[in-house]
Design a protein that fits this description.
Blueprint (H helix, E strand, L loop, with lengths): L3 E2 L9 H12 L16 H18 L6 E6 L2 H13 L5 E6 L2 H10 L4 E7 L21 E4 L1 E2 L4 E2 L10 E4 L16 E5 L10 E6 L16 H6 L9 H17 L2 H21 L3 E3 L10 E6 L5 H10 L2 E2 L10 E4 L6 H17 L1
Parallel strand pairs: 1-13, 3-4, 3-5, 5-8, 8-9
Antiparallel strand pairs: 2-10, 6-7, 9-10, 11-12, 12-14
Length: 356
């Protein structure tokens, strides 16, 4: 039976990415060597890294605008540390918008480096919306936000204007929607949702903002050193970077971000329409802030849980249970999830209405 993978991450990737990466594990570029055993300094892998970095900037519309794309390691969690290390001035401050668990974790790390100002938070409402009424201190070194919140199903639709460098964690919605990406000075994202296999972290950084913190930075955490080494300062996550390249190639062949955005909007519209129509369900996020990537919803009557769980499992659906912080269900609809999979879930929800 075909599986409909709603996992929040690691998650679904395009079928052709699985097939091509599997072949590369057996025989990469007809070299009779596995991708897993070739040198990261070999011309074949250097070509992979170069193309992947170039494709990132091309798809984001940042070519020739002073940005560098890096494939690093440590996930977004390490970026929580690298951001203040590289950007927060000694004895300075940074501004953070608190919209969920990962934003909160980023703030905790920044507090180790200086004054961390929380400009707004939706924590008291269990992060069910994106705050909009706040001011950003002009003397901060940077402003940090999280574009999409996987656990709580919220997404920033409009980003605040500021003269400060803007840093955005896009781990769960990178490459999913059209934005003016030049409004951000640093974008970072773990690969394991819309980009590739777990193990690589994408960082897109505007070079002109670096080298101004006044602090000594350990080499492995210094963006400038990674840029100088062309993302090869240390051994990269070879397999993860290769799957990122394959996924980026797939996205370009689909028509790029603008094309996938239309599909993502159709998927989200289909599921949210059923959540709102069906009296057995209710959404958890404020409608204005609903994520196109992660739809969170509950059963109105929890006694229906056993039968609903049996039905969606029998339909071949996987990864639907919600995070413990919210409960209920979470349907993660990343780029590679087809519209037909969303229709299968909607059909199950309609069928539940008939049988209870």
């Amino acid at each position: 039976m075909k599986k409909h993978n709603y996992s929040a991450g690691p998650c679904i990737l395009p079928q052709e990415v699985f097939e091509k990466s599997a072949q590369a594990v057996l025989n990469f570029n007809n070299s009779n060597l596995s991708l897993l055993e070739i040198s990261h300094r070999s011309k074949d892998f250097v070509a992979v890294m170069d193309e992947a970095r170039s494709l990132v900037l091309e798809l984001l519309g940042l070519e020739g605008k002073g940005y560098q794309a890096l494939f690093l390691q440590g996930g977004a969690s390490l970026e929580f540390v690298m951001i203040p290390y590289n950007l927060m001035k000694v004895d300075g401050k940074a501004a953070y918008l608190d919209t969920g668990t990962w934003a909160n974790n980023a703030m905790k790390e920044a507090k180790l480096f200086g004054d961390t100002v929380v400009v707004a938070s939706s924590k008291e409402q269990n992060y069910n919306h994106i705050p909009t009424e706040f001011s950003i201190p002009e003397d901060a070194s940077y402003f940090h936000c999280t574009s999409n919140n996987t656990i709580f199903g919220t997404q920033i639709k409009s980003f605040p204007k500021t003269n400060l460098p803007v840093v955005c964690d896009m781990s769960s919605d990178i490459f999913s929607r059209s934005l003016d990406f030049s409004q951000f000075d640093v974008i970072y994202a773990g690969a394991q949702k819309n980009m590739g296999a777990a193990g690589a972290t994408l960082v897109v950084v505007k070079e002109s903002i670096l080298g101004k913190s006044g602090r000594a930075i350990p080499s492995i955490l210094d963006y400038e050193k990674h840029i100088k080494a062309e993302s090869m300062y240390n051994t990269p996550a070879v397999f993860a970077v290769y799957t990122c390249l394959l996924t980026l190639q797939w996205l370009k062949n689909q028509g790029g971000i603008s094309a996938i955005e239309k599909i993502n909007e159709a998927k989200a519209a289909l599921l949210y329409a059923e959540i709102d129509r069906n009296p057995l369900f209710k959404g958890t996020a404020a409608k204005a802030d609903r994520s196109t990537m992660n739809a969170t919803f509950l059963l109105q009557d929890e006694t229906h849980t056993p039968i609903f769980d049996r039905m969606w499992k029998e339909a071949g659906i996987s990864g639907l249970p919600g995070h413990r912080s919210v409960g209920g269900y979470r349907a993660s609809m990343y780029n590679a999830l087809p519209l037909e999979s969303v229709q299968v879930l909607v059909n199950v929800m309609k069928e539940l209405e008939k049988v209870v």
